[in-house]
Amino acid sequence: MPHVSVTINGKTYRMACDEGQEGHLLSLAERFDGYVNQLRGAFGEIGDQRLTVMAGVMVTDELQEMEKRLRSLEVDVATLKASRDEQIGRAFAIESELSKQLVQAAEKVEGLVRRLAPAPLAVSSPVRRDQ
User: Fold this and answer.
1) For residues 49 and 10, what is the distance between their CA atoms, to the nearest angstrom?
2) Is there a contact between 52 and 33 (Cβ–Cβ < 8 Å)?
3) How many CB atoms lie within 10 A of CB 55?
């Protein structure tokens, strides 16, 4: 199992991670360290443990807000899917009705053509004069 060294609040920690996750772990540690540094800038030196706890609370708050947004977006997606399915159903019904009407119109046109077309002429066989 690979190990990486991360720095948070000026202190280095050796951490294990899954194969191939080294860069991801370093990125997470850098982000968390950013929260700690932001708090240190806002409150000064208030103690390492307190800074770390406050940063953890900030991250948790951000996560909770993202979860709320995700749930809201999931509801929106479900609503849009239901609306899409309803519209598809309507489109199929309209298409079916249109097809029926086109068949009826074609049948009427064929009927009119049969009524208006002249009767075929009787073809007589030619008379031979050499007989």
Assistant:
1) 13
2) no
3) 22
Question: 6 pairs with which residues across the strands?
Answer: 13
> DSSP H helical segments within the chain, as ranges?
22-43, 48-116
92-99 contacts, C-beta under 8 A, 24 or more apart:
none
Local structure of residue 7 (DSSP, 8 states): E
**Angular region, 56: left φ>0, alpha ψ -120 to 50, beta rest:** alpha
For 9-64, the pLDDT digits (tens) are 999 999 999 999 999 999 999 999 999 999 999 988 889 899 999 999 999 999 99
- Say whether 126 sits in a helix, a strand or coil: coil
Alpha carbon distance 40, 67 (integer Å): 27
Q: Find, among 55, 59, 11, 60, the residue nearest to 37 by Cα.
A: 55
